[in-house]
Write a structure and sequence with these properties.
The chain is α/β, with parallel strands linked by helices and 305 residues long. The protein contains 15 helices and four strands. InterPro entries: DEATH-like_dom_sf (IPR011029), Death_dom (IPR000488).
Length: 305
């Protein structure tokens, strides 16, 4: 236990000393690491106006798994890179960290047993198809947001708060209270959709939005057809574009947590920071004729070159 604590503190101190530029954005950085809002408030109260001290404490809490790690995953360099880029607002620093620390590597002397990534692949054509899907998804999402009248916002938030599992997936340890607190601070439909798109929905995880349309806009047939059309485009991605390999050899993709010769499914995706929760929602998006429930599914990040 002592060795683990020492490694945590050493990593935190070296991180702060080298990466002071993101200290001013320590709250955004903490949010990207999924540190609990209540913990962030305590850190701010204890450290005052010292951004570097706050950043130090954020890392201490995160490395000690003082967050919902069972849902969001254990501390790892992959999450550090994402948090530095998105929360810290420093893509160059994130790339520097990625070069020095292999993304699958864990922090604090622990290794993750929940590996969901296979070796990356180079496929510009497929990445372009995902890019087009994301554009379509964003366009329809904006249409949906604009279709909701402001007076519906309280009812929509109430609906979301009572359907937390739909946001997080089937995880017994989800933090419903944290989500409720975040939603309580939302004042506009635009802000609500920003939160949803940043944390809870994606180009393959959009069932919740369709539910909202069916509940609150039952007569908007144009919007329903738009989402139905998008579903068909996503289905085509799986069936005809090679976005999912259903009979891949685990060894060929560098997967080591299954017996040699095991056949697995490989999902080719656009990012290398998806979590186990994303894996669940991705699997739900796979057409039934392709999905094999008892076969392991892994993500493979598509590189440009």
């Amino acid at each position: 236990m002592f060795a683990v604590k020492c490694s945590v503190l050493m990593i935190s101190m070296s991180f702060i000393m080298k990466f002071k530029p993101i200290a001013a954005r320590w709250k955004q950085f903490a949010n990207s690491l999924y540190v609990r809002p209540a913990t962030i408030d305590i850190i701010e109260a204890n450290c005052g106006s010292s951004c570097e001290s706050c950043l130090h404490k954020v890392l201490e809490h995160w490395l000690r798994k003082d967050y919902n790690y069972e849902f969001f995953g254990s501390p790892c360099w992959r999450r550090v890179c994402v948090a530095v880029k998105e929360g810290g607002g420093d893509p160059a620093l994130a790339e520097e960290i990625a070069r020095k620390h292999p993304l699958p590597e864990s922090i604090g002397g622990e290794s993750t047993t929940d590996s969901i990534y296979a070796l990356p692949v180079k496929d510009v054509r497929l990445l372009n198809e995902i890019y087009e899907l994301q554009w379509d998804f964003s366009d329809i999402l904006k249409e949906t947001r604009d279709a909701f009248k402001p007076e519906l916002l309280p009812d929509i938030i109430d609906y979301l708060e009572t359907h937390v599992p739909a946001l997080l997936g089937p995880n017994k340890n989800y933090q419903a209270k944290e989500i409720t607190e975040e939603f309580n601070n939302i004042q506009t439909t635009k802000d609500l959709f920003k939160v949803l798109q940043r944390k809870y929905i994606s180009w393959f995880n959009y069932e919740l939005i369709v539910k909202l349309v069916n509940v609150f806009l039952p007569d908007n047939h144009l919007l329903k057809r738009a989402w139905s059309g998008y579903k068909e485009k996503l289905k085509d991605y799986f069936l005809n574009s090679g976005g999912l390999l259903t009979d891949a050899n685990a060894l060929e993709f560098g997967i080591k947590d299954v017996p040699p010769g095991t056949k697995v499914m490989i999902a080719k995706v656009d990012r290398d920071d998806y979590t186990l929760a994303d894996l669940f929602f991705f699997r739900r998006a796979i057409p039934k004729e392709l999905n094999i429930p008892d076969v392991y599914l892994y993500f493979s990040f598509i590189r440009i070159g």
